[in-house]
Amino acid sequence: MASAILFDLGGVLLEPHPERAIEALSIRSGRSPEELAPELLGVAKLGFDTGRIGPEGFAAAVGRAAGLPLSVDEVRALWCDIFDDLRPMQELAAALARRHPCYLLSNTDPMHFACALGRLPVLSRFRGQQLSYEVGLLKPDPEYYRAAFRRFGLRPEECVLVDDLRPNVEAIVREGAAGIVHEGTEATKRRLAELGLSA
What we know:
Layout: E1 4-7, E2 14-16, H1 19-29, H2 33-48, H3 55-66, H4 72-79, E3 83-85, H5 87-97, E4 102-106, H6 110-119, E5 128-131, H7 132-135, H8 142-152, E6 159-163, H9 166-174, E7 178-181, H10 185-194
Parallel strand pairs: 1-4, 1-6, 4-5, 6-7
Antiparallel strand pairs: 2-3
Helix pairs in contact: 1-2, 2-3, 3-4
């Protein structure tokens, strides 16, 4: 029976809009968003999110893509200005964390995670986090989930993942856990309650 809740970050607790950073870079560089997006998001996903490059390397890659001499601080400001709060879900997570062990499982980078820590007090109530840039793995890689089970001392059947991406949910379900494709706070709340996890 599920007893631990594993929360995704982007699309669940914060709504990401990477197009904001791309548009801001487009205005400054004169390059089109269509030119910038593949390189910027490719570097973010494959390099920064897996920890293969750090903030300095990411800033240098963004600068090359935009043809601009950008500092780490300039890139951080652009990269962290892409989130909107999903307050109903944040409030639900805070209520759940008072009653159940909660953990964060996120494909993210150090800039975004630092930003999330600063605006999501609920994360201080979680019992731990597994971040892709620290473990060098991305969801939905099965080893990402296995590493999380080992790290937190959990059995798959004890866990339910709340994630907005269906492939991520399907992958953890294949490992023996439960999963919810997050499509809205009320729907997720109902599904958690069905699994015996009420706020």
